[in-house]
Write a structure and sequence with these properties.
Blueprint lengths: L3 H13 L7 H11 L3 H23 L2 H18 L10 H17 L24 H18 L4 H12 L4 H8 L3 H20 L6
Helix pairs in contact: 1-6, 1-9, 2-3, 3-4, 3-5, 4-5, 5-8, 7-9, 8-9
Length: 206
């Protein structure tokens, strides 16, 4: 069962995390790509392809399919590069929006469906952890949360997945979901309360 301490750790991590620094070099590359620079686009691909692939793979659960969809994401990115404008969020938020829509198109569904995640939590789940012990603790919490998310409403699961698993800021999450930041914070609050109820009811087993 997810412990109350683990849940408290999640709530603190998600609600209290400061916004990540925007990669202004990537923003510059986006502008250069808009101007037709193939070199800039190639650098953006190298910078973001692993993260986009991981984002897609968690949703489709098939490596070959994830590779195909990831390639489609960057094709769409290239076609839509003229629509990009800097809003204060890192370019990854815009790119993950394209990825999210591509996955939705694949499943021919307008609603998010949280896929059952792998039992193994990758190193990206503990990026920036201050120590191996802290990394192991966060990894364990993340694995428990992944199981709990399958019990929530799709919109609740998605906002927690983006904020905690994908490590996006409120600004980035709002841009990806097409919502205002205040609405994202409210949705996150309701999602955490819902998750707490599942934990208290003992619906998640280890």
């Amino acid at each position: 069962m997810i412990s109350l301490a683990a849940f408290a750790s999640l709530a603190t991590t998600v609600a209290g995390r400061s916004a990540p620094t925007v990669d202004m070099r990537a923003v510059g590359l986006m502008e250069d790509a808009k101007d037709g620079s193939a070199v800039a686009f190639a650098e953006l691909y190298d910078c973001y392809v692993d993260r986009v692939y991981a984002f897609v793979y968690r949703r489709v659960g098939d490596r070959a399919l994830a590779e195909d969809l990831t390639a489609d994401v960057f094709t769409r990115m290239l076609k839509r590069i003229d629509t990009y404008s800097f809003t204060g969020a890192d370019p990854i938020a815009w790119l993950l929006t394209i990825a999210r829509n591509r996955v939705h198109d694949h499943f021919r569904s307008g609603r998010f469906r949280l896929e059952h995640a792998s039992d193994t939590v990758g190193s990206d789940m503990v990026d920036g952890a201050p120590s191996p012990a802290a990394a192991a603790e966060r990894s364990a919490v993340a694995a428990e949360v992944r199981a709990a998310l399958t019990l929530l409403k799709p919109e609740h699961a998605e906002v927690l997945h983006l904020r905690f698993i994908e490590d996006l800021s409120v600004t980035e999450t709002a841009e990806l979901l097409g919502r205002r930041e205040g609405a994202v914070r409210a949705l996150q609050h309701r999602a955490l309360r819902s998750l707490a109820k599942h934990v208290d009811m003992g619906m998640v087993t280890s």
